[in-house]
Design goal:
Elements lengths: L23 H15 L1 H15 L4 H5 L8 H7 L5 H12 L12 E11 L2 E8 H21 L7 E5 L6 E2 L5 E3 L1 H7 L1 H4 L13 H4 L4 H14 L4 E8 H24 L9 H10 L4 H12 L6 H5 L5 E5 L8 H8 L4 E2 L2 E3 L4 E4 L12 E3 L5 E8 L2 E2 L9 E2 L8 E7 L7 E13 L2 E9 L13 H12 L7 E11 L6 E10 L10 H14 L2 H10 L6 E5 L3 H11 L16 H9 L1 E6 L16
Helix pairs in contact: 1-6, 10-11, 11-13, 11-15, 16-17
This protein binds adenosine monophosphate.
Length: 609
């Protein structure tokens, strides 16, 4: 076992806080982490200089008259902080086929479609080929960190549910797809060399199959066949793992039947998958009977531990919006630890959790300074600092413990001082590198999985739906909402208090009208919501719960009794506090669901062909 030494050239301490590496290869990776985290500021300075050199001749940097300068102070004095909407014109031109150096000195290789939206459509993040290597570098650090805490992961396999989504092309011919789809389809993933610490039960053909059913079915099947070899079970986000468990609940009979007979169901038609599964699937009545015995009784508590008894941990992100799934995962996982290993986005991969076995509430991510140039916009207790002068952005090495910041990134692909929209809190340092708790994403009211619905979107959805009540002389006097994830898939619940204008001939709207209101609201949601509803089935039908008259007044009374000021009280547009949800639910007089799926087509962005 190699004990790590910092590979730093500065006078850094020779011993590190990372533990002993599991093997020589891991030792190199851990030394790299030490080097990066000891020399954060120097690395950031170098990264900024590299980015500015690489992009010196771009239209964007020329516009701000950087004139080849690569130092921080010139950069900070000349380049503005921007949002996606500020960059729309440039992004539109690139999407339309303008190949000149607009944002990046390197050719834009593709667009990554973010789950963040702008005007209801996915944001398109330009990226360059070299970014794939940088993402791969961050991935390569995850197992060396994990191996310090969980020994023997090279003696078995990982059951990870990984999926690609459909992709499109921009009018100029560039692919537009989610970052993970891009990664799984890349040679970095498909032609990865054998690594005993990273052996997946899922065949690559299953991961790369765009049909969600065939992909999930065969990933689950292969995980069941190899159940005793499985040492960790995971998906990218908690919602993905819960969908897989739900899938098992719905399809265990077919899966067991296939294993019993050693024949793959004809419902899986993808020839590539059929070929590889044929190699793995043999008649195995004992596994089939075991699955039946575990699933038939309808007792799903601890199912992951029972079916995959050698599982050491669940590898899923349960921070941020995913924290709502922790209790459900505890139930299905039978108390297995959950590890959040990485913090990343379509704009840039940021960093990793150096203590992945910590409790979900204690997860902090260390932003790795070689991934991009990072600045931080101060927030006070999570709220933007108000005031006249333009805010001063703080460098990665200079953030302070306890403070909240919004993350601002400058990337090799050409985003300059771009506001990511994530609010982070500094919890401590690893060497000179700050560690951040993910606090929240700005402006997100409702989220089930990757969907992010903000207050304005909910408001306009309610307005659109409420218009259907006009013939009944009925209005929505108040509303609020919650993301209900008690049942998988989760769904949006909108609480409505109605006013029927009886004096004007108003009538209580019939069930069909309220069902139509549910669908109308879904039609008004952004494309990520509708894709999850239609193509992925990862969000259930939207529900309107009509509450009795006076309920929202009671809600206000409750808030006032807990110290809210009557002058400042505003109806919360989303509720998460259990007593408030209980109060609302106790006043429900009718509940209605969307009876069909909203419209969604993969190609509906004006930037995409
Ligand atoms: P996307 O642009 O669709 O790739 O989504 C990236 C966003 O997902 C980030 O900006 C975060 O808001 C969220 N995210 C990514 N990783 C994590 C994490 N480990 N914990 C919480 N939120 C995360």
């Amino acid at each position: 076992m190699a004990v790590l030494k910092a590979a730093s050239t500065t006078a850094a301490p020779a011993t590190t806080k990372l533990g002993p590496a599991a093997c020589e290869k891991d030792a190199e990776k851990l030394a790299f982490i030490e080097e990066m985290t000891v020399n954060v500021d120097e690395v950031q300075e170098r990264v900024l200089a590299e980015i500015l050199t690489q992009n010196a001749e771009t239209e964007y940097l020329r516009r701000y008259e950087l004139r080849g300068a690569t130092d921080r102070s010139t950069f900070k004095s000349k380049i503005p902080m921007v949002t996606y909407d500020d960059l729309q014109p440039e992004i539109q031109r690139i999407a339309n086929g303008d190949r000149s150096a607009i944002l990046s000195g390197h050719p834009i290789s593709e667009f990554l479609t973010s789950s963040g939206t702008s005007a209801g459509e996915r944001k398109l993040m330009p990226t360059i080929q070299a970014e794939l290597d940088r993402r791969q570098l961050l991935y390569s650090l995850l197992m060396p960190v994990m191996n310090q805490y969980v020994p023997g992961l090279d003696k078995g396999k990982a059951l990870y549910f990984l999926f690609v989504k459909s992709e499109s092309r921009t009018p100029g011919g560039l692919p537009a797809r989610p970052v993970l789809t891009s990664y799984y389809k890349s040679d970095h993933f498909r032609s990865r060399p054998f690594d005993p610490y990273n052996v997946y039960t899922s065949p690559t053909a299953s991961i790369l199959c765009v049909d969600a059913f065939q992909s999930m079915y065969t990933q689950m099947l292969c995980g069941l066949i190899d159940r005793l070899a499985v040492l960790r079970v995971g998906a990218v986000f908690a919602s993905g793992l819960l969908r897989a468990i739900r899938f098992l609940q719905l399809h265990w009979r077919d899966l067991a039947a296939d294993i019993f007979a050693g024949v793959l169901t004809p419902k899986v038609t993808d020839p590539g998958i059929r070929e590889v599964v044929a190699e793995l699937l043999r008649p195995d009545p004992s596994i089939a009977e075991f699955i039946e015995a575990e699933c038939a009784g309808g007792d799903w508590a601890g199912i992951v531990k029972r079916i995959w008894p050698n599982t050491k941990y669940l590898d899923v992100i349960v921070t941020g919006a995913m924290a709502q799934y922790i209790p459900t995962l505890e139930y299905y996982g039978g108390g297995l630890p959950m590890t959040c290993t990485m913090y990343a986005s379509s704009e840039c991969y940021f960093g990793l959790n150096l203590r992945p076995m910590c409790k979900p509430s204690e997860v902090s991510y260390t932003i790795m300074p070689m991934m991009g140039y990072f600045e931080f916009l101060p927030h006070e207790d999570g709220f933007a600092v108000a005031g006249g002068a333009p805010p001063q952005l703080v460098d990665l090495a200079d953030v302070e413990v306890g403070k909240h910041y919004e993350l601002v990134v400058t990337t090799y692909a050409g985003l300059c001082r771009y506001r990511v929209g994530d609010i982070l809190q500094v919890t401590g340092f690893h060497n000179a590198a700050p560690e951040f708790r993910f606090v929240r994403r700005k402006n997100v009211l409702l989220s089930i999985e990757s969907d992010k619905t903000d207050e304005a979107e909910l408001q306009s959805a309610v307005e659109r739906a409420a218009a259907l009540l006009r013939p009944w002389r009925t209005t929505v006097v108040e509303y609020t909402s919650q993301a209900d994830t008690k049942v998988i898939p989760g769904h949006y619940v909108i609480y409505w208090e109605l006013l029927v204008k009886e004096g004007e001939g108003g009538q209580w709207p019939p069930a069909e009208t309220l069902q139509a209101c549910c669908l109308e609201m879904e039609e008004a949601m952004n494309t990520v919501y509708r894709q999850s509803r239609v193509a992925d089935g990862s969000i259930g039908p939207l529900e309107i719960r009509v509450v009795g008259g006076g309920t929202f007044e009671e809600l206000m009374d409750y808030a006032l009794s807990r110290g809210a000021s009557i002058n400042q009280y505003k109806v919360p547009r989303c509720v998460t506090f259990p007593p408030i949800i209980d109060l609302l639910d106790s006043r429900v007089v009718e509940a209605h669901f969307s009876q069909s799926c909203p419209n969604w087509a993969p190609i509906n962005n004006k930037l995409i062909n």
